[in-house]
Specification:
single chain; three-stranded antiparallel sheet; alpha+beta
């Protein structure tokens, strides 16, 4: 049986520990539902983006956790000129 997991990253791709401990999911849909329910807490806990893995192989990503799709680095640089 496949195991679906998330990798949590900063905007530069470095892995970070998630603020909410995920489980291993048995379906892609379950994994995606979980991220949909927990993305705000993950973002507040320091993750900027995620990658979905199936048995350790990347399925897609990086996917931004920022609501408008920007990364923390983009947000910070946009504020510098204001």
């Amino acid at each position: 049986m496949a195991a679906w997991t998330w990798r949590f990253e900063k905007a530069d791709g470095t892995q970070v520990e998630p603020a909410v401990t995920p489980e291993e999911f048995t379906t892609q849909g379950d994994a995606e539902s979980w991220i949909g329910e927990n993305w705000k807490a993950l973002l507040e806990g320091g993750a900027d983006q995620v990658r979905l893995l199936e048995d350790g192989s990347e399925i897609y990503g990086p996917m931004s956790l920022h609501a408008d799709g920007t990364t923390a680095a983009e947000t910070e640089s946009a504020g510098e000129g204001a």
